[in-house]
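Folded chain entry —
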Amino acid sequence: MRHKCVILADSHQNMLEGIRGLLTTTFETVIMVADKNSLFKAAEDLDPDLAVVDLSLPVAGEVNVARELKNRHPELRLIVLSVHDEPVAVEEVMAAGASAFVLKRSAATDLMQAVDEVSNGNLYVSPKIQA
C-alpha cells in the first residue's frame, strides 16, 4: 500500500539521503527537514501520514521533540530513529507517544517493517534492543 506523505527529520545529511531512499518505495512524498522548527511547520502544513524523527534532533531535551510533536498532532504516527540502544531510551520515547523505535544501525532492515507495523496500528521496537 502506498502512503501519501512522510516527514523525515534528521540533522545528518547522509542519514537523510539513505533513509529517504527507503521511504520513497512506500510514500508518494518524502519531506526532509533538519531541525525542530521545520519539523513542526511541516507537520502543521502537510498533514503527513507519518513522521520519522532522529532522537538526537537538536532540541532542549531529546524526548521533548517526540512528546511535543504528539501533543500538537496526537493522530500523527511517529517513528523515532536512534543510535542509542539502552532500554531506558526506548521506554522514554514510547512513553512520550512514539509508535516505533528503530536503531539507526538497523534502519536498512528494520525501518520498513516499522512503517508497516505502525501503519497497521501496532508498535515496533528494533529486535536488537529486545534481545
Observations:
- The chain is about 45% helix and 25% strand.
- Residues 107-119 form the longest helix (13 residues).
- The radius of gyration is 13 Å.
